[in-house]
Each structure stands twice: as structure tokens, then as C-alpha cells.
């Protein structure tokens, strides 16, 4: 027969009054009903003889029998209490007390947890009668703890693992991997074009896009790895147990394809893509080095055109260290006068008179020598130094304008980052005011990149710049998006034709001259000037003049010089410019080193072919003198195939020859192949 609650719990002495038993019963009832407290009792065999109603009903709801069943058949220790799980039965058998064991029902009860304590109880004769104990409901506390833990380790927007959880998993995985020599891979992802979505459609749409991206990314990765969001539009995928480039490539391609499909948000169709950097860890690699390598690979992927993936290679790390070294040196260069400006002439095509200069930035490193702009300008843009450098260039160039005769102007390149900075207008206004120059003598060269993020904002800046009075030139036209809408809306005074169209334009076999003519025609219709950049040969001068370009800039009229070297002649009124470049354009040369047969006046001899182009070649091991110039020869460029050529110059046992008919060349980075 089961004991009453008062009988087993109170164990009152014989002298206790009936009110004591009532008080105990009343206090227990209150604890059970209002304080999530419950009580239990077993007999000497470990079978339950009492269990509070609130817990018994929860267990029985799941088909778990209570009264009369062994305690260890009703409750099981939580999976996180494995040490207790081995000792619970020990306490029952050894009749020793236990406390604060976290328990659940034997069939799971996924949403119910209790804390349970007990001790043996003896009768008046000190005989063991069983266990008595109590418990508390932990469900609410554990659910709150689980919620806090989830929030601490999950991204609040997407529900993916957050940076902390990804780091913890990466450290644990790499520790295990180093012990059993199991590799793992890390994919770093960055969305291409997300900033434009945020700027044009707003952050709520951007958040909705990130949620959809997270869902697609999780679907693409599936069970292959853990997906996390580091913040913004940066995601990470941790793949355990593999270093197989083929499978990782397939996964990366799948992710790019999934994420690049259009999204529909609030009636808008949105398209973004993603770039991925992949790094694989072996042996003793550290989590920090793996993240660094994946980041470097991601940088390479974005630099390679975006919407692609790249695996980390050691060469990338060398380049990254070089970039960091350049950045540190560049910061020092700003404060130690290592940066200078040189000025390259801009010449009128019609009269070959100097009209002004373009200011070109140069860096003379004290130990490494000259460092080219193509190397350090990208580093300046990535590091944010371009703003300080750009401001210095503007002030320096405007100061130079004040020293020049009034009929000359100077053009200055403005980077997209500098263009978007609101401080640009105040920098210009202050510098122009201090130098007291006519603002129309300053020409700002701007690339199409300023339109990519927010064309409407760009238009406002253009309007403000024109209000200051400066001239505007669209630089590198034809190499970017070349939207005619830019020309329709932006108040440009000039279009600069990129050097890639000028190079080789005299060759009638390519279409560059037709492209130049089209750009000139468009500029004329819009009332804009045109400058052909990169003109290096005198025959190109005549071509761009015939095509209608209004100005020429390039080595054909000289390299950039410091202003102090230019001023003496400029102040005397010198404006006529004489070309100094090569008279004729040459087709690109490909290096060779091959013995071939040459025939002159029916006499054959072996010579060495050193380089070759479509129109001519350089040969050596010859004994010609000046009288040989103009002689026609036959040369065996291909086996058993003679080509007619004329000797154009001789000297130092070498000769330059021009083919009667152009030849075809297929070239790769390492070799040059002549085609029949």
C-alpha cells in the first residue's frame, strides 16, 4: 500500500501534534502547485511509491508508467549528464544520497527537464525503507538558456551560424584534423553588387535579399558543411574531411549559379552574384592562417572579374604581403615628399601647338626606386589612402596652374572614391580660391566607374563641379560600360580615347581606326573635344588627325617632366611641338631564337631569327653593310617555305627585314608559333 504524503515526508516524532502533519501537507501542496517543486518516494526495492501529481501527469501523457515502477525505469539522466548516468543506479543500490541530477522521461519528453535530488530514509529501527526526494522544473530556465545560446551563436537576420560559432567550429575541426591528419576546406564568399542594392532600394530590401541568399546558400551546401554569415554580405562555408579540388570546384560553381539567379523582392527583380575564395588546411595549419588564405583567394577572385572562384596559392600570399608592404611605404611616402607630379604635353592636332598638360603622379621610393602608378594606385584605393593622395595632387596641380601662362591648362585624374567624397568640392574651392586661378584651366578626368554605384548621386556631383567652373573629361572611353546615357546627362567637355584603340590603329587589318572615327563623330555631335591617348609613333599623328581627333597626348610629344624643367621655355612663349617618337608604328614583336636559311642572289646561308612580327623580323649572324639596305631576300621562316622580304636596316651583325606579305602568328605566354 502506498504511503500518504504526510506519512513518508514528515516522519514526525510520536509527540508531534496533528497540526504539525497538517502544516507539512499544506506546505508541500503549496510548493507543488505554485513553485514548480515536486516530491517523490521509493520503497526499498527502488520502486516509486509517491510522485507529485504535476510530474506524474506529464510522464503518463507520454505513456510512461510511474507508481510501482523502478525509479530508473521512469527517469533517465539527460545526455549532457553522462557521468551522472553511470552513477544514478549506483546511488540507488548503495543507498547514498545524490543531488541536482538533470533528468527527463525515458521516452524523451523533448520539452521537459527536471532537477532531481534524493536521500535514503530509515524507519524508527534504523532499517532502510527506500528513498525520498524532491525536484524542480528546469524547462523554462533551460529553454531560456537555449534561446540565449542560439542568439549568441546564430546570425540574428538569417539564422545561419554567426562569426563566433564558425570560429569555434573551425578551431575544433582543425584540432581534430591535425590529430588524425584529416583535411578541411574553408570557402569565403562575398556578394558582387550588394552595395548597389542597399543604396538604391534601401536596407529593408537589402536585408530581404540577404535572407534569400542565406537560404539558397544553405540549400546548395546542404549537409556537406556548415554555413555562416560573418556580417554584411560576407558568408563562410566550412567543409570537413576533404581537400578534393574537383568536388570543391563543383560546389563553388553550384553556389555561384544558385546565388546569381534573379531574386524577386517587393515587386523588384534583383540580380547579384558572388565571388568565392577557397583554402584547404593540412596538418599543423592554424585557423587564423586558413581564414587568411581564403580571404586572399577571395580577393584574387574579385580582382579576376567577379562571379568566379579561386583556390589559394602561395603566390597570392606573396602578392598580399607585397601589397601590405606597399601600403605601409605609401603612408610614409605621403609624409616624406616621395610623391611628385610630372606633366605630359597635350597638343592640338590641327596646329601642333601645346594647349596644356596632364598631371601624372610618380613615386620615387628611397630604396626600391621608381614604383609605377599601376602598382601603387590600386593599393591606395583599397587602403583608403587615395583620398589623401588625391587631395594632395589637386592642390599641387592647381598651384602649378597659377605658375603657368594663362593660355595653358592642366588635367588631373580623379578616382571614383575621391569623386564620391563630399569633401572634393570644398578641397577644389579652397585650392582654387587660394591660387586665384581661372577654374576653367583645371580639367578633371573621370572614368565611368563613378556611375556604377549611384548614377543619380553622380549627376548631382557633376552639377556641383560645373558650378565651380572646372572642365570635365571622360577618361578611358570605350574600355568600360560606355553607356551613351552618361554622355547624354553628364556635362563633359572632352572624351579621352583610350590608348588601346590608338595602338595598332594604323594597321588596316584591325578595326581600331573605325572605332576612333565613331567616337570622334559622337563627340562632335555632342560638342565635345577628343584626346587620343598613348600616341607613340609619328604615323599615328597623321591618322588621328585624319580621323578628326582634336588633341593628342603620348610619348610622341615627350614623356612627363617636372614643372621646373618646363617653365623656362613656356614663359618664353614656346608652344610649337615637334614629334620625337618613332616615325613608323611596328607590329608587336614575339621573341624567338631559331636557326633559319636565308637566300641572297641565289646564295644560301644560315642565320639566326631572333624575333618576328606580322610584318617583319630581326635576324643576326649576318655580315651585311649599308649597301644591303633595300635588297630583296628569301628567308625560310617555316620549313620548306620561303618568304620574300626586304632588308630595311643593318648594323652590328644584325638586320631588320620587312616581309613582302604579312604572316600570321599565334602566340602564347611562353612561345610563338608561326602559322602557314
What's this, in brief?
This protein has 676 residues and is an alpha+beta fold.
Helix residue percentage: 25-40%
- The neighbouring-strand order within the major sheet is 14-15-17-18-19-20-21-22
The low-pLDDT segments are 6-16, 81-85, 667-676
The averaged pLDDT comes out at: 84
Class by alpha and beta content:
alpha+beta
Radius of gyration: 41 Å
Largest β-sheet summary:
8 strands, mixed, barrel
* Count of individual helical segments: 22
The total beta strand count reads 30
Distance between the termini: 109 Å
Strand composition percent = 25-35%
Envelope shape: elongated
Explain how this protein is built.
This protein is an alpha+beta fold. The chain has an eight-stranded mixed beta barrel with strand order 14-15-17-18-19-20-21-22, surrounded by four helices. A six-stranded antiparallel β-sheet has the order 2-1-6-5-4-3. Strands 23-24-25-28-27-26 form a six-stranded antiparallel beta barrel. The longest helix is centred in the middle third of the chain and has 22 residues, at 314-335. 30% of the residues are buried. Residues 6-16, 81-85 and 667-676 have low confidence and may be disordered.
